[in-house]
Amino acid sequence: xxxxxxxxxxxxxxxxxxxxxxxxxxxxxxxxxxxxxxxxxxxxxxxxxxxxxxxxxxxxxxxxxxxxxxxxxxxxxxxxxxxxxxxxxxxxxxxxxxxxxxxxxxxxxxxxxxxxxxxxxxxxxxxxxxxxxxxxxxxxxxxxxxxxxxxxxxxxxxxxxxxxxxxxxxxxxxxxxxxxxxxxxxxxxxxxxxxxxxxxxxxxxxxxxxxxxxxxxxxxxxxxxxxxxxxxxxxxxxxxxxxxxxxxxxxxxxxxxxxxxxxxxxxxxxxxxxxxxxxxxxxxxxxxxxxxxxxxxxxxxxxxxxxxxxxxxxxxxxxxxxxxxxxxxxxxxxxxxxxxx
Length: 341
Fold this sequence. Notes:
Elements: H1 2-13, H2 27-37, E1 41-44, E2 52-54, E3 59-60, E4 79-85, E5 90-97, E6 102-109, E7 117-122, E8 127-132, E9 138-143, H3 160-177, H4 181-209, H5 215-222, E10 226-230, E11 236-240, E12 245-250, E13 259-264, E14 270-275, E15 280-284, E16 290-292, E17 297-298, H6 306-326, H7 330-338
């Protein structure tokens, strides 16, 4: 009798994508299913102000509308985000490496700009987190806990239902698409190791071969936001016209390399040094923390707190944003400063 009941249950369960002994969709079938749900399956690589690309390499704006490709502004690394957009406000992001390793999945719902809710699945640390955005934004851990998170950022237990509702919305979107989370991860990993790897290689080659901006073009762009001053020691000082940041080009530093020193008014106790070879070294003003943002390591036995490192990451993000906003690569910035008259 029990075996007969099990067979009846399985018959109903297997009507979907999986069941008792049933098979998951193949990556190719998952892709077909996603395409039936949306024509906005896009790749995010490079910087904040770069185009999105579809899986064939066509360019799209951030609303998912196809457009003529712009020059690539940000750095193209080995990681990228695959986006499945229900619309402009609701979408799933899966962050992956070209080796198929998946780090994080996020579900975003910004239909109410006052709330801006997010669901995070951190696969590396096995954490599920919901960020609830409202007048009192907070993070709710559905499982596990990140000990580095400030206690003041955590939601109290009264927000549990709100957090669970966001995860339910994510699961409903998967159901509407017609796939499981497991099938989504398997598809993204498969794509990353095959066509995704090829697309990233093509984007790197495109950026390498694209025409550089002229010094005049860079000057015209930066002059919209920055006031230039050339100093007696051949250094060049740029101050933002609304005072939120400053750049200083140092012709030669103590280690005999050209560098740019960047300060952000929100974190005025931190100076970020950017070198022409691509190194990012952040130093706090008390000189107790020297930190490499490339290697994610401290330098010279420094004592760097979690909060200080987080702030240093924020300063670097602001610097990268300035380059991306102006469409300037790091190499172009240094060449501009070196040849500045």
